[in-house]
Write a structure and sequence with these properties.
This protein has 553 residues and is α/β, with parallel strands linked by helices. The chain is built from 19 helices and 22 strands. Strands 11, 13, 14, 15, 16, 17, 18 and 19 form an 8-stranded mixed beta sheet that branches. Strand 7 and strand 8 (185-194) form a beta hairpin. The longest helix is centred in the last third of the chain and has 20 residues, at 532-551. The chain is globular and about 75 Å long. The site of flavin-adenine dinucleotide has 42 residues, from helix 1, strand 3, helix 2, strand 7 and helix 9.
Length: 553
């Protein structure tokens, strides 16, 4: 058994763990960072992320003539979170502190560390209800120049510098199986040393055990991520309000997002709250070049695709692409099927299909202005999207409706799409385009969206008939349910101190990031405004890191 010691033990090298470690080291504390994966996976999920961040009243928004404010953002947050439980006290306090951060110091803090953003904030989760309901009133999704890796960069740099200075020590392939509790306080962690692994970043690594370790510190900070790759746990926590758990799901996260550490923390006295609150996407496509098991990619949709259920019926208002993720998930849950369809044209896919993830956006991830101009401004189907059209298991590309319907039925192996009904639906929708006004709320949403300059230029196709041969071919995309984020988690106060069942701090135990529901045990409540997960890791990692540094000082 190897023995390790430091002032603070951090579990997990995702964004939250790295931010906290950077803050701890800056305060002069000695940190031991335990990580089950090999060094190649440093950065965890954030490396794979799109790097979209929720910012409020930013210079990027102002340049695009978006009028945003802390008050509007908080109104949107409350309508989206819909906090309604007694245990929402700390999550709500975290949410308010986070909105203040997003409207205040967040951008300058990141900017000061070299992080930059694209000039055109995206409009995610538009809601479609009234002013106090779910959704972003304005575009707030700021994509980091360099995507996820670009956001990780300064924190990796700071932590590596501290490692060279002797303050930080990484122990990769150290999997925590138990927290050490002495006299009621958490004083360390025990676990298995796993065999060295040459697994590439994100790929599954072996679980062969070659030894044991025990690590001791004055405080332990759990930043171990959520549960998204553990489909069994996702199904167990699936709430009734979303219908029956899907039989088939794909994974939007690598396998290390296994949720084990949450139960291990519970065994040490921690209380988990809101485990039924999760954020899974409804526009998942199977990755034709998978890196991890069941690897799925999320389409970040804009509003023009026609959204049909498995039987070819249009989804109800306001379940348009990019409007209400969990509202759509609940509708699918009640449908008896676990997939839906987008029907669109080449003209729509060129403009409107963005794929979430750093590796799906090489132009942004590699910070290549030339490639961005070539692929996003000049037009044409972006390379990564074309690759899915050519190789993806969920794509049907045809010249006419009859063969499109036949292709859809062949893909699922179920004759659920009736070609005449499909044609009627599309022709009816196309008729609504004859005037500059319409009763069809989706057409109205497309036209309203195009009044936002950035979307008109690069994100929303000019309204056109789906059956216009000039806009074709026709494309149908089967959309799968893609697991991603855990909104509930370890109950924490505003310092990140983990609370027990009585609401009292478990001495020595802290948490941040997705393991802590991005703050407090669920600062999102039921739903998210997007870009708030990376931001939640930044804020809760920084807050807990500073609080622990003060505690062990
Ligand atoms: C493809 C993709 C796109 C995304 N895009 C966005 C976006 O644009 N905007 C946004 O806000 N969010 C986005 N997200 C979500 C965001 O990236 C994650 O929520 C966030 O990075 C989670 O960070 P974390 O540090 O909490 O956990 P993780 O990144 O999951 O890191 C946790 C680490 O802990 C380790 N660990 C777990 N258990 C143990 C144990 N027992 N012992 C030792 N080590 C352990 C894991 O191996 C892992 O390395 C995206 C995620 C993905 C996958």
């Amino acid at each position: 058994m190897s023995s390790l010691k430091a002032d603070v033990v951090v579990i997990g090298t995702g964004l939250a763990g790295l931010v906290a470690t950077a803050e701890l080291a800056e305060a002069g504390r000695r940190v031991l960072v335990l990580e089950q994966e090999p060094e190649a996976s440093l950065g965890g999920q954030a490396f794979w992320s799109f790097g979209g961040l929720f910012l409020v009243n930013s210079p990027e928004q102002r340049r695009m003539r978006i009028r945003d404010s802390r008050e509007l953002a908080w109104q949107d947050w409350l309508g989206t979170a819909a906090f309604d439980r007694p245990e929402d006290r700390w999550p709500r306090a975290w949410a308010e502190a986070y909105v203040d951060f997003a409207a205040g110091e967040k951008r300058s803090w990141l900017h000061g560390q070299g992080v930059r953003f694209l000039p055109n904030p995206g409009w995610a989760e538009r809601g479609g209800y009234d002013a106090t309901g779910h959704g972003n009133s304005v575009p707030r999704f700021h994509v980091t120049w360099g995507t996820g890796p670009g956001l990780l960069e300064p924190f990796v740099r700071r932590v590596r510098e501290a490692e060279r200075g002797g303050l930080v020590r990484f122990a990769f392939r150290h999997r925590v199986d138990e927290l050490v509790v002495s006299d009621g306080a958490v004083t360390g962690a025990r676990g298995a040393v796993l065999a060295p692994s040459g697994a590439a970043r994100g790929a599954a690594s072996s679980r062969e055990v070659i030894g044991e370790f025990e690590a001791a510190g004055q405080c332990v900070l759990v930043t171990s991520g959520g549960i998204g790759a553990n489909h069994e746990l996702v199904r167990r926590n699936w709430p009734e309000r979303l219908g029956a758990p899907p039989k088939r799901m794909i994974s939007g996260v690598p396998e290390h997002v296994d949720g084990r550490m949450i139960a291990i923390s519970e065994q040490a006295g921690a209380k988990v709250i809101n485990p039924d609150r999760m954020w899974h996407y409804v526009e998942g496509i199977q990755n034709w070049a998978p890196i991890w098991k069941h690897h799925g990619i999320r389409i970040l949709p804009a509003p023009s695709s026609l959204w049909l259920d498995a039987t070819g019926r249009r989804l109800p208002v306001p379940l348009f692409p990019g409007f209400d993720t969990l509202g759509t998930l609940a509708h699918i849950g009640a449908s008896g099927y676990d997939y839906t369809w987008f029907v669109l044209t080449r003209k729509i896919i060129e403009r409107e299909f963005a794929l979430s993830g750093s590796e799906q956006n090489p132009d942004l991830t590699n910070k290549s202005v030339r490639e961005v101009l070539r692929t996003r401004v000049r037009g044409g189907v972006p390379g990564p999207v074309q690759a899915f059209m050519d190789h993806g298991a969920d794509f049907v590309v045809r010249r006419d409706i009859r063969s499109l319907a036949a292709g859809m039925n062949a893909l699922t192996g179920e004759p659920l799409i009736d070609v005449d009904a499909l044609e009627q639906e599309i022709v009816a929708r196309d008729r609504e385009l004859a005037n500059p006004f319409s009763k069809d709320l989706q057409i109205m949403a497309i036209r309203s969206g195009r009044r936002y300059l950035a979307d008109r230029v690069s994100r929303i196709a000019a309204p056109h008939r789906l059956l216009d041969p000039e806009a074709g071919p026709l494309i149908a995309v089967r959309l799968n349910i893609l697991t991603r984020k855990t909104l509930g988690g370890l109950h924490c106060d505003l310092e990140g101190r983990v609370l027990d069942a009585a609401g009292e701090p478990v001495p020595g135990l802290y948490s941040a990031g997705e393991a802590a529901g991005f703050g407090g045990g669920g600062m999102h409540g039921y739903r998210s405004l997007e870009g708030t997960f990376l931001g939640g890791c930044l804020f809760s990692g920084r807050t807990a890191g500073r609080a622990v540094a003060a505690r062990v000082g």
